[in-house]
C-alpha cells in the first residue's frame, strides 16, 4: 500500500487522507513535521537529502522531516522518522507550526501544515542512506551566512523555518 498523508484545513483539522504522491501532485494541504536537533554546543544538525529523493534531492535541510501516517500523533511520527532517517531518538519539544506552499520543477507541490520540533542530541548518528546523503553540525550563524550566500543549496521549507526556529529559541 502506498504511503498516505493526512489532509487538513488551515486550522490543522483533518479533512481526509490521500496517497502521498497524489497529494503532492495536486498541491493539497496536508500535515507534516520538521525536526531541528541541536548538540550541547548549540550547533544544528543538518542533513543533505538523498540524491534520488522525489524532490529536493541533494539539498541541505533540517535534521528530519516527514508526514505522520493516518491515525498517528504528530509527536510520535516525529520520533519514528527521526529514528528511521538519522538512527537515533531524543526528547522532542513542540516549538511552533506554520503553513507553506512550494512548487517544484518536476510538477510536484509541497503544501504543508508543518509542526516544528526541537531536541538536543550528542550521541552517535547512523543515517539511512536511502534518506540521507550526508549530515553535519553547524552553528546558526554559519547556517545564516550560507542561507544568504547559497540559498539554492537548501530546501524551501528550511529557508522558511530556520529563521523562525532561531527567533523562537532566542525568545526562550
Q: What do you see in this structure?
A:
The protein has 172 residues and is an alpha+beta fold. It has one domain: Nucleoside Triphosphate Pyrophosphohydrolase, CATH 3.90.79.10. It is 27% helix and 35% strand. It has helices spanning 20-26, 74-86, 140-149, 156-171, and strands at 4-8, 14-19, 30-38, 44-49, 60-61, 64-66, 93-103, 109-120, 132-138. The protein has a four-stranded mixed sheet, with helices on both faces. Strands 5-4-9 form a three-stranded antiparallel sheet. A hairpin with a 5-residue loop joins strand 1 (4-8) and strand 2 (14-19). The longest helix has 16 residues, at 156-171. It is globular, with a radius of gyration of 15 Å. It starts with a strand and ends with a helix. Its EC number is 5.3.3.2.
